[in-house]
Design a protein that fits this description.
This protein is α/β, with parallel strands linked by helices and 316 residues long. It folds into two domains: 115 residues, NAD(P)-binding Rossmann-like Domain (Rossmann fold), CATH 3.40.50.720; 178 residues, 3-Layer(aba) Sandwich (Rossmann fold). 36% of the residues lie in helices and 16% in strands. The chain has twelve helices and twelve strands. The strands form two sheets. It has a seven-stranded parallel sheet with strand order 8-7-6-9-10-11-12, sandwiched between helices. The longest helix has 21 residues. The model has no long low-confidence stretch (mean pLDDT 97).
């Protein structure tokens, strides 16, 4: 009997196609409630999720036949990795599939912040012609600090160099050799905050990074800094950010991610110095094809050949 794979979140068709080609049986069931998922998850050998489905300990306990859970994306904070391990389920992600898209979105947000493009667009559509209100800054010659120099941070660095920016980086896992090769100046968080005109965050959510952008961190930043967050909303203390903006310490924030998603209401909404997008950094046709393809191939390789790729630490 073929291995059954549940595709629980909207994924590109290529995921199903590859699974079928490899002799597996994909079943697409999206938009299930946690109860519905709990009731059916026991039938499957593998599951593909994006960010809409949360695999809690409670749900994973019912996944009696499951061998592998794949997050078609980079961040896997919607999967309880410890609970997966307890239930002998290997967790995998597809860490490179959407890096280019995420870096491009972060870069676009940096440009949008520098020139207040969304605000100017809204104002112009409203017939206001506020030419003198929207005086921006250039990015050329400025310093950008990258917090988290993994796949996305590295691509961002390359784009920043193309725009003649000085690139500082903070990442405990970035070796001196790689930093030198990429022309990223490795610095402490203190130095990064003190010298950067822009800071972009590309870190995963861990107990260490949760709430890291708080009052104390903001006080160490260069006055008038501009922040970009395409990582996870919970790395920021929202009230501290709003206070930093009100005092002028932070000139602007561009934000793609929120502590609670979907975010239909949020204290950032309506603030004229904050640009918001609805967690779309990885939402390009190109990235979605790549992550769906990688997810399917990783599942097939694991179920058929026992070949473990991009398995998340702590799940095996
Ligand atoms: C990711 O973790 O891969 C990104 O946040 C993309 C997403 O969840 O849509």
């Amino acid at each position: 009997m073929a291995f059954k794979v549940l595709i629980a979140d909207k994924s590109d068709k290529i995921c199903e196609t590859i699974l079928k080609e490899r002799g597996l049986e994909p079943v697409v069931k999206t938009g299930m409630t946690p109860e519905e998922l709990k009731a059916c998850i026991g039938e499957y050998d593998a599951i593909v999720v994006r960010s809409a489905t949360t695999l809690t300990a409670d749900i994973l306990k019912e996944a009696k036949n499951m061998k592998v859970a794949v997050r078609a994306g980079a961040g896997y904070d919607n999967i309880d990795v410890a609970a997966a391990k307890e239930n002998k389920i290997v967790v995998m992600n597809t860490p490179t599939g959407n890096s280019q898209s995420a870096a491009e979105h972060a870069f676009a947000l940096m440009m949008a912040l520098a020139r207040q493009i969304p605000q100017a667009n809204t104002s112009t559509h409203a017939g206001k012609w506020e030419k003198s209100k929207f005086k921006g800054v250039e990015i050329c010659g400025k310093t950008v600090g990258i917090v988290g120099c993994g796949n996305i941070g590295k691509i961002f660095a390359d784009m920043a160099h193309g725009h003649h920016m000085t690139v500082l980086g903070f990442d405990p896992f970035l070796s001196d050799e790689v930093a030198a090769k990429l022309n990223i100046k490795k610095v402490t968080m203190d130095e990064l905050y003190a010298k950067s005109d822009f800071v972009t965050y590309h870190t995963i959510l861990t107990p260490e990074t949760k709430g890291m952008v708080n009052k104390e961190a903001i006080a160490r930043m260069k006055k008038g800094i501009r922040l970009i967050n395409c990582s996870r909303g919970a790395i920021m203390n929202e009230q501290d950010i709003l206070d930093g903006i009100a005092s002028g310490q932070i000139a602007g924030l561009a934000c793609d991610v929120y502590a609670n998603e979907p975010a239909k209401e949020h204290p950032f909404f309506g603030n004229e110095n904050i640009i918001c997008t609805p967690h779309i950094a990885a939402s390009t046709k190109d990235a979605q094809i790549r992550v769906a393809q990688q997810a399917a191939e990783q599942i097939a390789d694991f179920l058929i050949d026992g070949n473990k790729r991009n398995a998340v630490k702590g799940s095996y």
